[in-house]
Design brief:
Length: 134
């Protein structure tokens, strides 16, 4: 998961309020996987990302872990997230994840994986450790 996280202006606007995540836009943010080949860009909107549809997939409402200090930075993590295919899964290739506001109106952050993750059969899984670095 080495590609740097790209945060849009929406996430940058709330980073100053990050310690109080119970009232901000990050409360109930939705974490989703995308299937289109896309490099996150500052001008992106949620509609620029094609959301995964494999059996067993669902967007996740994020519960943020405590803010961690790492040298000169602070890291806010969503913890390890796992999606596991089940049933008659249609083959998809996962390119990364994106984070939207609870109402899906705003793109908060996105990250393309270094290597795509194929999902083609029941039991295949996608794991990610989304975080915001401040």
């Amino acid at each position: 998961m080495g590609a740097p996280l790209y945060t849009t202006k929406y996430a940058e606007d709330v980073l100053a309020q990050i310690i109080n995540i119970t009232d901000g836009v990050l409360l109930n943010a939705k974490l989703k996987l995308f299937t289109n080949s896309k490099n996150p860009d500052k001008a992106d909107v949620p509609g620029d990302y094609t959301e995964a549809t494999f059996d067993g997939y669902a967007a996740k409402t994020i519960t943020w872990e405590a803010l961690q200090n790492q040298g000169d930075y602070r890291i806010l993590s969503a913890g390890l997230q796992t999606w596991t295919a089940n049933g008659d899964t249609v083959s998809e290739t996962i390119h990364g994840w994106f984070l939207t506001s609870n109402d899906d109106a705003d793109l908060l952050a996105a990250q393309a994986f270094d290597t795509t993750v194929p999902v083609s059969k029941s039991g295949d899984s996608v794991k990610s450790l989304p975080s915001l670095k401040m």
